[in-house]
Amino acid sequence: KEQRYHNSFISVNSIYRGRNYNSKSNKTTMPPEESNSDITPEASKRICKHMNEDHYITVLAMARSVAILKPGWKVSEARLLEADLWKFTLQAVTCSGAMCEMQKVDFPLHPPLNYSSEIRKRMVEIHNQLLQPKLYWLIKPQSVINLFLLTAMAYGELVLGIEGMESAIDGSKKYHHMATDTLVLVLRCVFWFTVCVHSIEGVYGFYHSRTTLKLKLPGQLMWGALLFIAGFPVMSEFTPLVQAALAHQQEEATKKQA
Q: CA of 64: how far to CAs of 47, 78, 90, 125, 127, in Å?
């Protein structure tokens, strides 16, 4: 028993001699050489295989965020090649029509990892960060036009009402030749049709951000809200992500059946 305690003391001592201990933060910081060797080549291969097979959409999102693209080109495929504590190395396939090129890119980790066991948590953070919708999409020209028209129609339908809309239209007869009641009916139908379409898009975004993209609740709500508010301009950003994820799932399912 005494021998076991003695061996334990020696092993703990040897650990602290190989690391810098910060008494203020109560944390141990590994020297760069030891930290780098914490992810062995074998562990890196396992991580890459798991990410490429089960979390492909995260790998694709990382590649899209760091790849250098020519005008009119986009990242169509990506693979994780290597993982260490400071960066992930990826191979990105960029295409423009039938022309495609490969480029090797690094996705830096800020801050770097301390141990390989932190990779899973960091990957989840990266996944939710990169796949969340961007609020600046709402100021795209098409989004601004959609918002303006939807707001104007909502004001007429919900605030002015039928009589208010007819009165406003009667005051602007020189700009149209349609009967007032017909024009009001058309505007009301367009408004409610738009609301229905945007609602369907919002539900679609919420559903697929949860089941296909595997985002947390804030990301699900953001996709649903932005799709409801802006419609097509945001949908054009969302659909390629969902299609890529579903295509990879189908490809992996086919491989398992073969």
A: 20, 9, 10, 16, 12
